[in-house]
C-alpha cells in the first residue's frame, strides 16, 4: 500500500532542497508555504501546487529563505547549503553588463556557449541564465545543439527559440515557433559533416534574425551543447564556437577542456571555468533513453497540457521519404570536384518498407528534394506507427490532421513506440 507522504522543509537563505522522483507512475507535489523560492531560475508562486513525475530531478533554491512542502514519495530529498548559485548569478550579472553595453553602443549582446561532459548541469545552467535574462526584461535566444538530450522539438534535431518568458516549472520553455533542423541521430559522431552543416546554418539564420530584431540581438544568445568533449567531439564544439562567433564559453567541471579551449580560442573569447552543482544527478544510458522517449511522447501528447495527435493512413505512392547521407566512397572514386564528405549530406530516396515502423519522419518546409533541404527549417515530426506492405500504406501519428503536406520527409534514426 502506498501512503501519501507529507514532508515540510525549512530552507535558510542561499540553500536548496533537492529531490528525485524515481518509482514508476509516481507523482510528487511541491508547494511553497512561505518565503520566496525558484526552480532553475523560474520563480515559484506561493501556495501553488506544482507536479513532478517519474524521472524528475529537482532543486528548489532560495536566496532569502522559505518553507516548502512535498507531497508524495520521493527517492531522495535533502537540503544542501553548498551550491554554485552565487557563482552562476555573477555570470548572469557579467552577461547583463554586456547587454547594457550592447544597447548603448548599438552592437550585439553576448553570445554564450555552455560546454562540459555529460551530466554536469549544462542544460540546467542554460535554463537558469535564460530565466534570469528574461526576468530582467531581456529576450535572449536559446540555442540547443544537444541532439541526444535536447530541449527543443524532439531528439535528433538542433534548434533555437526566442525566449519571451521564464520556463514553465512543469513544461520548460514555451515551444512556440521554434527554428528546428534535422539531424536524425542521437550523437553528432554519427554524421559529423551533417552536424556541422546544420549548426552553421542555424548560426547563419540566427544572425540574420538578430539583424531584424534589436531586442533579441542585444539580449544575446545562450547555447547548450552535447556532452561529447573529446577528440572529434572537441572539434564539433570549436566549430560551433566559430559558427556562432561566441564571446563567452562557460566550461562546467572539466579542467582539461577549459585549458584546451583557452589555448585554441581567439583572445577575444572569454573562457570561464565554473564548478558543477553537487546536486546534478548522473544518468545511466537507460535513463537517457527513457528521457529521449519521454521527450518524443511529450511532443505528440503534451506534458501538463494534453495534445491530441491524429492517426491516419498514407499511400506509399503519396510519400517522398529521404535519408541524409549516402554510403561514403573513397575520394578516388568520386566524380571530379566532389569530396568523399559531400556524400554525407546527400539526400537518398527511401522506399517505404516494414523497417520504417516506429521511426520518426521530419516534415521539411522544403518544396522538393532539390530545394536545399538541409537548409530548410522543419515544420514538425510524424511517427510511423504501422506499415502495411499489402495495402501499400503507412499509418502515421501526426500533430496535424490529414493530409500530410506533400513535401519532403526526412527519415530519422529515432524510434518511438506509440502505446497510448
Ligand atoms: P547536462 O546538460 O550537463 O547533461 P543537466 O543539466 O541535464 O546536465 O542535469 C542532469 C540532471 O540533474 C537533470 O535531471 C537536472 O534536473 C538535475 N539537476 C541539475 N541541477 C540539480 C540540482 N542542483 N539538484 C538536483 N538535481 C539537479
From TrEMBL:
ATP binds at residues 16, 57, 119-124. It comes from the Eukaryota. The keyword Transferase does not apply. CDD domains: SIMIBI (cd01983). Residues 10-101 form the Clp1 N-terminal domain. Residues 116-302 form the Clp1 P-loop domain. Pfam families: Clp1, CLP1_N, CLP1_P. Keywords: ATP-binding, mRNA processing, Nucleotide-binding, Nucleus. Residues 308-418 form the Clp1 C-terminal domain. It is found in: Nucleus. InterPro entries: Clp1, Clp1/Grc3, Clp1_C, Clp1_C_sf, Clp1_N, Clp1_N_sf, CLP1_P, P-loop_NTPase. Required for endonucleolytic cleavage during polyadenylation-dependent pre-mRNA 3'-end formation. Belongs to the Clp1 family. Clp1 subfamily. This is Protein CLP1 homolog. It comes from Vanessa tameamea (Kamehameha butterfly).
